[in-house]
# Entry
Amino acid sequence: MTTDDHLPGPVAVLTNPSAGRGRHRALLPRLLDGLAAAGRPVRLLSASSPLEAEAACRAAVVEGAGALVAVGGDGTVHRAVQAVAGTDVPFGPVPAGTGNDFALDTGFPADPLAAVAVIADALRSGRSRAVDLARMTDTDGVERWYGAVLAAGFDAIVNERANRMRWPRGPRRYDLAIVVELARLRPRRYTLRLDGVPHELDAVLVAVGNCPTYGGGMRICPDADPTDGLLDVVVAGRVNRRTLIRVKPRIYQGTHVSHPLVTSYRARTVELTADGITTYADGERSLTLPVTISAVPGALRLLR
# Structure
């Protein structure tokens, strides 16, 4: 835990009004009032797309924001984190999305107003707590940060399928994508290099976690700890459709890791290679394999 005695710039706030299908939209004025109660100026950032949101956060940090707050789900948090990772600018996630895995895994209340109260108290006292982030780099040197989990197997393939589909709209599109990809399920060959030690394996699901959960509470990497300087890697090997359907519900409790076809690893650096996989980090479309992922201790300062 650290404290700041200087007087930093305004609190920049990124919001996603459509997060969680808009169910917290009406709360926004109260959330902003709660942040303003910390005695700092509050500046609402303007953005109409994920790329604009990320650019607005980066600009706010460059222009001297004293803190950054993201009101939304894991996607909103993911965009904001790109701007504050590795900086001294503290960050507060306000869980208001469909999936709020990073905020909940790092100890923030599930209720948005309660989370704002925690953040405002930290702002008032100049308090922040350091947590790790994962930094990934592709072969072209493109770099991205994530806070929760990187999906690089079946779940990433389903997301990619759903994003290509024009019909149906809403959650049913994702459900249909699962059905389509289950029918096409096959193990893929991965090369996994953990702190320099190579592993060749066939797998249908690979997840690299800085935090335990993804997808709105699925404990895919149940033992991951965002303060231990390590990444948890969970691999489901040559699993057939029937086994995957049977084991997948166990992910919510984290008990899937006891299945004989599931293997867990832990490393500071993970090099991951496979053909035809676009990864999803914090639920957001990210880099195409191969990538190198490193745990970066204390890369983010949380307003807690």
